[in-house]
Each structure stands twice: as C-alpha cells, then as structure tokens.
Amino acid sequence: MMKNEVNPILQLPDAIWEAYDLAVDKINNNEQLREHATLCHHRLLQLLEGDSNSDELIPLLSSVESEMGEQAGMFAAVMIFAIIPFVQKQYRAIGIPFSILVDTFTDLHVWMNDYYGKHGRWGLSQIGWILHHVQCRLFKIGRLQYIHKPRWEMKVWVYLQHGTGHLQIVANVKEPTSHEIVGNPISSRGEVMPQMIQLDPKEWKLVLFEDTPVLEVHIQEGGKLSSELCKESMHEAVRFFKTYFPDKTFAAFVCSSWLLGPSLRQVLSSESNIVQFQKLFTLVHADVDKDEIFQRVFGEKPVDLHSAPRASSLQRAVLDYAISGKDFDQGVGFLYLDETKPSF
C-alpha cells in the first residue's frame, strides 16, 4: 500500500522497496522499535506543522543501530516514506504543482544511492538534509535547489552605486556615518584586501549584508550544469516564490560550494559548465577545503591519488592539480537581484 501511494512521487526502484519491506517487518516484530517509530512519526508530523526542531529529530531517526543492525539505515527511510502523503497535502494546500514535489524528492533517491555506494546496502544517512524537504523548506526548481533564508549571515557588506549599477563588496565595515563608509574591499578571489576604502553614502546604497533575506542555491548531483539551465531555474525560482510564498522576499541568490572554489578556474576550461556556473556569482569568501571536492567527484577521497580513476575530464584535472601539491578550496558567492535589470 505504501509503495502504491508514494512511489508516484518518489519513483524508487524495486530493490529499495524490497529493503523497505524487510525493514518494516523488523520494526513491526519488535515492540521497542514499534514504539520508537510511533514517536518518530509524531515528531515528523510536528516538524511539518512547524511545531518541532529538526535538530531534535536527527538523533531519534538514527539511533536504532542496536535494534536494526545492518538495516539501521533504512529506519529513517521508512519514517520519511510514511510522511510523504502528509507533505503532499501541504503542497496541495499551498497550490504547489505536483511536478515540483516529484522533482524535489528525487533527492531521496540520490542520497539512498549514495548510502548504497558507501555501505553496499540501502539506507539513508543525510537525515538533516532530507528534513528540509519534509519541512517544505527546500524546493528543486529545474536544475537547482533552493532554501529561503531570512538572514544571509555572512559578515560582508555589498553596496550598489547609484547610476552605474556597480557593486562594491566590503568587509570589516566601521560604523557608517552620514559622510563616509569605511572598510576593507574584497577581491574577485574572495580575499579581504589590507588597504581601507571610503565610500560616499550619497553615492552608495547598502543592498546586501548579514541580515538580508536571501535564496540559498544548492546543486543536486547528476545532470548537466549548463549556464542556460541554471539561469532558467533561477528565473523560475523568482516566479515560484512570488507566487507561492509572497511573504518570503529575498535580495539575492547565494551559494556556498566547492563548485565556487577559485582553484577550479586554474584546472578547467573557461568554457566548462563549472566555470560558467561560477561566473553567475560574485565571490565574497574562499577557504581551503582538501576533501569536499574528492567526495563530490570520486565519492570519497582516494587513498592513492596516482591510482585513482580518471574516467572523466574533471577527475583527471582534479587529480593532476592535487598531485602537483596544490589544495582545492570552496567559495561563497552571491547574485544580486537588481530590480532595475530584467534578467541576469
């Protein structure tokens, strides 16, 4: 019954449903697990209604290893499957199209595949991430995923120059006065420059800072990451939130990802999809990250870089760069939504 009800949404293969049936049998035949499952279902309903905190749910959904054994990873999946009909009701109440629901929950298959690749059996470990979907906080619209954030929380200030549309990114801004704004400029590589600059408040308007509401961009693995698909997705996202969440305003798209790491421009063609994706954003910060890119490109960091697979041009470029002794990084960037410009 569960498969018939939710698989038109989840579109999972039979192998996962076979693992689901085995996990459900184990839960039903263990009184402690049945009680725990009832509690988790109740808490998930509360989460969907906004009356619970996802941080409290994660340990509840993942603390069953002693009872479930090797099937422990399926417990969270079973609980998520059971809540899908309630999520669908929420979508219907808001008026969100069924296609968005289906696209959004393709992530469940992505992360169950990831679990299978690492453990050789079906399960789900990215519980906190998937709870964003359950809460109707994350939506996949076209190629990209989005989460509305009431606050950006980045300690940078972005000023727009009247008349020219030029943006100046500044760190360490002193308390602005009526006649000057003083701070350190941030370079195109996301580096805070040592020299101070002064801006005239009459010429510059603050348009983005840590308290500004933003739309956070995430990139689901798999699929083409072309500039055209990303731009189309962003335009659709603007329309989506204006239509279904008009109270959730935002001044910019923001993204924090290994895909925005400046080092990638040194190893990839300027015409590559990743570099074109980077060009959509203005970089404000970059940090060394030695592991994330390997997780994303290889599934895990290879023990021996010299014998690691070189099946794709990206894998070859990453390995050659790392073998040369250089570190990769990840970046944080934004795309300001200038109301005077119809497109980006």
Structure overview:
This protein is α+β, with helices and mostly antiparallel strands and 344 residues long. The protein folds into three domains: 2-136, no CATH class; 157-208, no CATH class; 214-336, Aminopeptidase (3-Layer(aba) Sandwich). It is built from 14 helices and eleven strands. It has helices at 2-10, 14-28, 31-48, 54-62, 65-68, 72-94, 98-104, 106-119, 127-134, 227-244, 264-267, 273-278, 292-298, 313-323, and strands at 138-141, 144-149, 157-161, 167-171, 181-185, 197-199, 204-208, 214-219, 252-257, 282-288, 329-336. The strands form two sheets. It has a six-stranded mixed beta sheet with strand order 1-2-8-9-11-10. Strand 1 and strand 2 form a beta hairpin. Helix 1 crosses helix 6 (72-94), helix 2 (14-28) crosses helix 6 and helix 6 (72-94) packs parallel to helix 9 (127-134). The radius of gyration is 23 Å and the shape is globular. The model has no long low-confidence stretch (mean pLDDT 93).
List keywords for this structure.
344 residues; alpha+beta; Aminopeptidase; 3 domains; 6-stranded mixed sheet; 5-stranded antiparallel sheet; globular
